[in-house]
Amino acid sequence: xxxxxxxxxxxxxxxxxxxxxxxxxxxxxxxxxxxxxxxxxxxxxxxxxxxxxxxxxxxxxxxxxxxxxxxxxxxxxxxxxxx
Length: 83
Known about the structure:
This protein is of the alpha+beta class and about 80 residues long. About 15% of the residues lie in helices and about 10% in strands. The chain is built from two helices and two strands. Strands 1-2 form a two-stranded antiparallel sheet. The chain is elongated.
């Protein structure tokens, strides 16, 4: 009997502000998107992180993606300006 819900209690408010979400009870602001959806798709199609090749000369990068931070091409000089 002591653990029944109080019928007179106000319901818990389940909302979150736009651009934010709750994770483990903490409000986390979502980062603003810098790129449009079209720009994001182009990045997926051309960036060496996803293709393994330089977008200018098709130089093939080593497949050790875990250690790579910069994606500058040693063949043609293309530089990754996203960092």
